Amino acid sequence: MLRRFSTNxxxxxxxxxGLAVFISLRLSVFFRPxxxxxxxxxxxxxxxxxPAALYFLFxxxxxxxxxxxxxxxxxxxxxxxxxxxxxxxAMLISxxxxxxxxxxxxxxLSRAMFIVFILLVYLLCLVWRIMARIYFxxxxxxxxxARHVLIVGAGDLxxxxxxxxxxxxxxxxxxxxxxxxxxxxxxxxxxLLGNADEIRNALIEHEVTDVVIALPYSEYHQMSRIxxxxxxxxxxxxxxxxxxxxxxxxxxxxxFAGIPMLDLRASAIDDYQRMMKRAFDVFFGLIALILAxxxxxxxxxxxxxxxxxxxxFRQKRVGENGRLFDMLKFxxxxxxxxxxxxxxxxxxxxxxxxxxxxxDPRVTKVGHFLRRFSLDELPQFINVVRGDMSLVxxxxxxxxxxxxxxxxxxxxxxxxxxxxGWWQVNGRSDKPMHLHTEDDLYYIQNxxxxxxxxxxxxxxxxxxxxxxxx
Length: 470
Hints:
Blueprint: H1 7-31, H2 52-68, H3 80-104, H4 111-138, E1 147-152, H5 156-167, E2 173-179, H6 199-205, E3 210-213, H7 223-229, E4 236-240, E5 250-256, E6 259-266, H8 271-307, E7 312-318, E8 324-330, H9 341-344, E9 346-347, E10 353-354, H10 365-372, H11 380-386, E11 390-392, H12 399-402, E12 418-420, H13 433-445, H14 449-465
Parallel strand pairs: 1-2, 1-3, 3-4, 11-12
Antiparallel strand pairs: 4-6, 5-6, 7-8, 9-10
């Protein structure tokens, strides 16, 4: 089920708008001959041929202009009238742009047909948005999509947050309970889930997704302790009317159930950048996956003939915001290689763990070849299409190594992990983990879609050279 403010729904909206333009162009050809009955419209033959390029160009123009005007950023247009007003402006700009292209290229195209086309596009784009709003209003939130909220602090501020949550009209918000060191503050003992030292157990037991820190000003010194206790938990952390940044990630102020709060786990990239990055990943990830299918089939056959099944290696990795996912690779090591991990780990002069080495005895002969040209990474295009990973981003880390992270290193989880990244094109496996993090933070702080493109181009050359690949 699509969520209204999700990246996937934004991509789906782009697809629907592009489809609406395509269908409108086809329908305008169908309707144009019927306009010959009007005296003030020049008669046209029944067989009208529209240049094939327009079927690609016009949807692209509409989607680009809609994106530029943030039409696909749902949070900017919570009210229907605001969205429809911006849609009208976007339609006007798109129509003028399309008319300009026709004037410079296909000037023989019927002006009456173009007007019919514009009206149809506007109608279709408007209708599907109205239907989407009706759909989301009538949908009930399923239990697995509900956001379970735990409030730290049961004082006046915490009680106010609870009341606001219960009175809000957001069906996906569920109040789980309080965490407080003073049980007397909680009128209903059932709502008390424990003290600050028991917060981790409460998060797991009640499947909490959002933690709201609502401590009074006199207890703000406790905030750092609370945040450190849950820094490795896959939850959103909010501060009710907080005033300083304890974030491991990017910090933003957002409206949460009608209360202004600091989001300590906000993504390092804004919603619009995330949408464009996801669109980039889906488009080029699908192309890469299709093009890589022959190589993937050959690599799979080589692994099977060399060491049998399993061909794919699934490994738990830590992704964005500390969430775990199964990363896919072609198996390049002997079976049960993870049980021998301790035998090959080394430490550098500063005590940092180096868990990869060029002479790792667990790597098979075929595995060396696949790693040399990074063919073992090809199945990760599936992770990209599924949304677990991005084409470019910090490399997803293994959980047991993340447990050894220093607090500053956790900032690398502020954006989706990637197949390749800044440190891969500036050293790949030659650098130990602690230097990887510095490069990842550079990428996060300087993110742009153009940097992603630059890294992808450089990755191709790095793979061909084979530098640091083992």
